TrEMBL record, chain A:
Domain Zinc finger Sec23/Sec24-type span(s) in chain numbering: 58-98
Compartments, as annotated in UniProt: Cytoplasmic vesicle, COPII-coated vesicle membrane; Endoplasmic reticulum membrane; Cytoplasm, Cytosol
UniProt source species: Balaenoptera acutorostrata (Common minke whale)
Record-given protein name: Protein transport protein SEC23
InterPro entries the UniProt entry points to: ADF-H/Gelsolin-like_dom_sf (IPR029006), Beta-sandwich_Sec23_24 (IPR012990), Gelsolin-like_dom (IPR007123), Gelsolin-like_dom_sf (IPR036180), Sec23 (IPR037364), Sec23/24_helical_dom (IPR006900), Sec23/24_helical_dom_sf (IPR036175), Sec23/24_trunk_dom (IPR006896)
Domain Gelsolin-like: residue ranges: 634-720
Keywords, in A-Z order: Cytoplasm, Cytoplasmic vesicle, Endoplasmic reticulum, ER-Golgi transport, Membrane, Metal-binding, Protein transport, Transport, Zinc
GO molecular function: GTPase activator activity; zinc ion binding
Membrane topology: Peripheral membrane protein
Function noted in UniProt: Component of the coat protein complex II (COPII) which promotes the formation of transport vesicles from the endoplasmic reticulum (ER). The coat has two main functions, the physical deformation of the endoplasmic reticulum membrane into vesicles and the selection of cargo molecules for their transport to the Golgi complex.
Key word Nucleotide-binding present: no
TrEMBL record, chain B:
Organism listed in the record: Balaenoptera acutorostrata
Keyword Kinase: no
One Pfam family in the UniProt entry: Sec23_BS
Segments forming domain Gelsolin-like: 964-1037
Domain Sec23/Sec24 helical per the UniProt entry, residue ranges: 847-946
Designated name of the protein: Protein transport protein Sec24C isoform X2
Amino acid sequence: MATYLEFIQQNEERDGVRFSWNVWPSSRLEATRMVVPLACILTPLKERPDLPPVQYEPVLCSRPTCKAILNPLCQVDYRAKLWACNFCFQRNQFPPAYAGISEVNQPAELMPQFSTVEYVIQRGAQSPLIFLYVVDTCLEEDDLQALKESLQMSLSLLPPDAMVGLITFGRMVQVHELSCEGISKSYVFRGTKDLTAKQIQDMLGLTKPAMPVHPAHPAQPQEHPSISSRFLQPIHKIDMNLTDLLGELQRDPWPVPQGKRPLRSTGVALSIAVGLLEGTFPNTGARIMLFVGGPPTQGPGMVVGDELKVPIRSWHDIEKDNARFMKKATKHYEMLANRAAANGHCVDIYACALDQTGLLEMKCCTNLTGGHMVMGDSFNTSLFKQTFQRIFSKDFNGNFRMAFGATLEVKTSRELKVAGAIGPCVSLNVKGPCVSENELGVGGTSQWKICGLDPTSTLGIYFEVVNQHNAPIPQGGRGAIQFVTHYQHSSTQRRIRATTIARNWADAQSQLKHIEAAFDQEAAAVLMARLGVFRAESEEGPDVLRWLDRQLIRLCQKFGQYTKEDPSSFRLSDSFSLYPQFMFHLRRSPFLQVFNNSPDESSYYRHHFARQDLTQSLIMIQPILYSYSFHGPPEPVLLDSSSILADRILLMDTFFQIVIYLGETIAQWQKAGYQDMPEYENFKHLLQAPLDDAQEILHARFPMPRYVSTEHGGSQARFLLSKVNPSQTHNNLYAWGQETGAPILTDDVSLQVFMDHLKKLAVSSAC
Amino acid sequence: MNLNQSAPPVPPFGQPQPAYLGHHQSSYGGQPGSTTAPTSYGAYNGPVPGYQQTPPPGVSRAPPSSGAPPASTAQGPCGQTAYGQFGQGDVQNGPSSTVQMQRLPGYQPFGSAVLAPVVSQPAVLQPYGPPPTSAQVTAQLAGMQISGAVAPASPPSGLGYGPPTSLASASGSFPNSGLYGSYPQGQAPPLGQAQGHPGAQPPQRSVPPQASSFTPPASGGPRMPSMTGPLLPGQSFGGPPVSQPNHVSSPAPQVLPPGTQMTGPPGPPPPPMHSSQQPGYQLQQNGSYGPTRGPQSNYGSPYPGAAAFGSQPGPPQPLPPKRLDPDAIPSPIQVIEDDRNNRGSEPFVTGVRGQVPPLVTTNFLVKDQGNASPRYIRCTSYNIPCTSDMAKQAQVPLAAVIKPLARLPPEEASPYVVDHGESGPLRCNRCKAYMCPFMQFVEGGRRFQCCFCSCINDVPPQYFQHLDHTGKRVDAYDRPELSLGSYEFLATVDYCKNNKFPSPPAFIFMIDVSYNAIRSGLVRLLCEELKSLLDFLPREGGAEESAVRVGFVTYNKVLHFYNVKSSLAQPQMMVVSDVGDMFVPLLDGFLVNVNESQAVITSLLDQIPEMFADTRETETVFAPVIQAGMEALKAAECAGKLFLFHTSLPIAEAPGKLKNRDDRKLINTDKEKTLFQPQTGAYQTLAKECVAQGCCVDLFLFPNQYVDVATLSVVPQLTGGSVYKYACFQVENDQERFLSDLRRDVQKVVGFDAVMRVRTSTGIRAVDFFGAFYMSNTTDVELAGLDGDKTVTVEFKHDDRLNEESGALLQCALLYTSCAGQRRLRIHNLALNCCTQLADLYRNCETDTLINYMAKFAYRGVLNSPVKTVRDTLITQCAQILACYRKNCASPSSAGQLILPECMKLLPVYLNCVLKSDVLQPGAEVTTDDRAYVRQLVTSMDVAETNVFFYPRLLPLTKSPIENTTEPPAVRASDERLSNGDIYLLENGLNLFLWVGASVQQGVVQSLFGVSSFSQITSGLSVLPVLDNLLSKKVRGLIDSLRAQRSRYMKLIVVKQEDKLETLFKHFLVEDKSLSGGASYVDFLCHMHKEIRQLLS
């Protein structure tokens, strides 16, 4: 087993890929019986400091329908200078540049350790990075001030040749012209009117003006600065100008009557931003950064009316079909998201408000384009400021950790087909021989567009084994998959990263043990969770839970060892042992449970869940709990109410929150001020330890988690109490004795109960 | 007028002329009316007698000639009856005395004297007092009659008109006619002469009695000096200029050749043709004049009538051919001069009901004693027929021209502001009329009876006051609303929109920055000017700074708004390209206080020309610009005014987009009206919204080609704004005019968001309104903005019988927001007399006002009817008015005489001017835009403006001694009055020409133009060099003072005789035949006479 763990880890480090199954069942039928689909978690741009890109272009298979990239798995005839494609078995000539290859003189892409190769494409014009700020001005004064400062700061982080643009909005939408001297100039749009891309471009004067005939100045080759230049300028040219402009930004001046929300034209602003880029930089990487301080209240994309007495929709309203603007707004944003995606532009949403801001409706903008979604209480918090700053963080080469306009292409050997992908992508609708008819996630294609991605962006890719049961695969046969990612690197280069992996086939009947042992329960949990969350977007919550439960039960039935009708006999092998627990926590997670979460929060959580890598995803599913005490070094403890003890300090990381919880005794000590007494310096250290650890997490994570410091009985302790397994509740409190933890006031089932039921159902022959 | 033709033979003209002369004289006579008048009349009479003696002048005539002569007759009759006597009796002096007396009552006297005579006289008598020869008087009346006929009979009267030429006759006749003078029957001439002279002299009126005839001078003497003078020369007439109002006579002099007179005529006119025809004529022949109309003969005819002359006529006839002597037909100049002399000296006291005020051309002071000053309200008649039947019969439109915010001369106090406290102004409970001097307090002052609806209302306790023994409140003189014709109330919150006191208004400057505007230098010029102009926004009373806020927009195909908030270092521009759905992109910082934002505004105005210096945008939008301004005001919750500076047809894709639809081929077709109609209804809708917001739009146009003024001016028109048009604007040539207009327009005091309502006492009711405003119902005139130049003409109709005793009352209430944001009500009250005799109506008319009404009526008519129909309607109405008079008030005369009521003797000439105006009869060089422009201008003109607009003032500059600093007396607008050795100024309120005769002395050329000879003068020059000599200073001073009198800056154009520009200039010589086919005065008069005769028969 250890070997498999190592193997998995190694693969992940090298290729950024983890499969649910590392040995594949060789027939369609068997594969479906495995319950957990054959799928992988792919981090296309995983940081590989040790992998310098090669400065040439990949060699492609010459078969038009294949075009796979030459890889270490290909058979090469060094003499004939031929290579056989391992996907379609086409034999190809090497290009002339490869004339000198031999067994000892191999190009990088043929060496086994280079299962992942990054190519730099030299052709084509390099386009600059483009950042379009779309800023809400209906903010409180200090919020706006903080936002302005953040924006100004961000200018200093951008490379000098990056193009920037600014759109502000409130009741109206203003597109600021950045090129003019003297008077600052902006184009203003009504916030209530849905404009087509053409209208927007006409109104911004982006369409080619019919050249007026000028008898006076015949054919004066007037320097025609590209038309777009008025709104998007290289930062080095207009740095001062833009800084001043941002400095002078005023709150939306339109009066907001008592009892009303400010009129906020987010929908139109975004539409204009998309239209502007569409008209000026189609098919060029660009980032639209939308900063909102409240819900859109007018025009297309409005989420709530301006009457304060009508609250913004809740899950309750949605269930009751009472959210009157939701459908229309969602449609509006989806349309925008698709347009942006089609042009390779990504949309970020930075929403900072105490109430909801309409992320539910707008989520597709980020989800389909690979943009960031950040939610906070105020722009004037370190949570936002640091998160925002982190967007512009750089890698060891000094390049931004962001890439644009990527296309991910998946090629499979013929026993496999691609069923779909779940992640921050849109389908490119490329049909091909390797596209499955069954869809899981976004399917029906072998290529996806990911407009914005970073080294942690991760997709779940789902496959279908199509090999028929009666066509056994020869012994030692391997299935291969190639992931090809074209993208625009932040250094403005076009690059291609190609990852080719292969796994063994196994006959599920005779070699089930192999398959079982090669099960990656962590990857499987995340992949199943993604499927569940994906379903949850369109289905009722209970249905999804039921589906998950059913899958879990079937998995246990398939791989558990038990005597029928005897729950106590039930056992799972090590490679499956944690899986039910993941599912238990997943069922309780905010990704599937909307109770206590606003629709916006749900959208926010799901957004991140669909793009984080495996480790982060697991943290999201099952938060990590560390315990600090005088009894020894900090240790991970069970996410269980029994871990909540009076003399411990707990640090919980749920990905979205970092909670530090002081046990009852510790809290009392702290109140008494022992930490300030020299003789109790160790107590001081104890208090400090979780803080330091928390800092570390805070620094590493994007987006910045909410930091909560609380203590026994504190109101914020609910963050902890809602996550732990309610092994002790007010119902069984006395049965368990008081000293071993804190009771949770809930009717939720505990892990124990859950497992008991699971076993009972798994061994039951009824299902 | 009668043109009589005494001499039938003679073609109309011929005679006419004489007649005219006569008229003139008579005119004079008429004038004399003023002072001398009496005498004059007398004179006339005199003449008459002299002449024929036969008839008691006038009278006789009538009969005599076939009508024609009538003129005289007419006069006769009239005169006699009415005046006649005046003339005579008082005649001259008499008049003075008497007249005055009478006048007091109403001007009428004078007036009457003149025309009136005829009719009025009877009544009036006053003037002359019957005494003298009544006959003569009559004559005067008759005056009108031109006809030679008069001569005989008329002689006496000599309708002024008449046929100048025929001095003789004229004279004769005229004299009598006095009024008519003008007419004088051309024919009369012959007689005329005889008479003429006499008459002429008469003109002077002075001549009292017949004797007057020549002697008249003597009589004339009174005023006459001139007259006399003339007379002499001319033979009698001459001088007359002065003479009567009526007429023209003055000119008479020219006529001189009285004897000749006849001759004069010769040429004339073919028109005669007609004349000839007219059989009936014979007598009339003169009539013939009338170019045609046989009837006309009247003109001349008087003479005919002259039957008496009969014989004479005969001879004349030969002459006949003559045409009416222009000097014999009623002369506007003379009427104006006379009124000036007679009424300019003492204040007009408004205490008496139904007084006819002095003419608008007269400079007089007003003392408000209970009726609104004529500066605020003028009526077509101050004596209203009691019944609608009478009104229908007379066809005299009952209309009032109201200028609620008229500017007053510094000597007159502006209306007092009355504050009735929280309860608001005191009003009648039933009809809601406001407290006014006519309200009757009863029951010891505890109640008051509404003078409009007779409802009895309680007097609120706080307003209670005891009555004195006459039933007047003791405090009547302490309260403006109980003692004055005009005053203001402070409005309470109930009178405000949304029950909120208004905020101060705002001005928004919206500047076209398309290629044309930039290239012409307009934008730079405007921005430069605004920098200083903004310090002079209108302010109220003694306020230190104006409460008006300002905002700026520039536009071409898109709009640029500017944020000029005082806290900004630099203005900010906000572009709105969504012209299809206009909105205002900012709130705060768009409308600012000028002082606070001075620096930012200056910076903005500096930068605007630079920013667009390289623009290549040639397309513009228009409706969205107005929409934007209106929305801005709406957002700021205030009323205000937009100043639009626009250059081209808005062809950019946007609401209100227009296409070039100019098509000269439509002229004179049934579709011609479409040229005046807006292309699209969008602008009406927009205007309606503007009105609702109190958004007034002033439009400055700078077109290089067709811009469709008819459509663009819809919004300004409906919102009470003004349109200014500077075709082919060039900074060098037009900047003075534009800047001056702009300054005036920006600085003038404006009332915003106004509603005007005219209430009337039972029996009549306001039924129609003309002017620049919008009406959403039939009673309330809504004005987004109203300034001191804008006038509303209101027409009344009977809906019941009026009572002679109680008269008719008008109350015009204007609710408006002052430029400081105060809500006020301005009330004007006017009491009119009612009459059961048509003669009273005709004696109390005001021709200028009538013309104002008729022009507006016609100009509105062209929107819906073919122009020809409109013209015919005007002519018919005029003929009916005059025919009714003739039939009911001047019966004794012969049908061939043209007899005009004294008060209306200028009606034909003025009406002819209206008919010839560009709108109703466009010349080849008049563009569609010009017509539309003029059409909308006239719509809100007041009486003084229409007066000079239709009949331009022509001032000889070199006739009077240089030292004489007063304005030189005007001469009639006819080519014949120009002498090539002189220089003339012509102005009509819009244009100003300096005409230089070809043989002007070199010295004059040198001192005026700084060049040594005529040929070196630049034609088309628009500025006179500043030279340090008396003449130059005087002329420039005169030009300046003329400009100061007009609401728009008149650009000077120097025209050299025989130069190509002269065509343009001659267009304004309205007494002549125009190139576009407009009739000459004489021809038209003849035509009118014919029409009248047809009606009478």
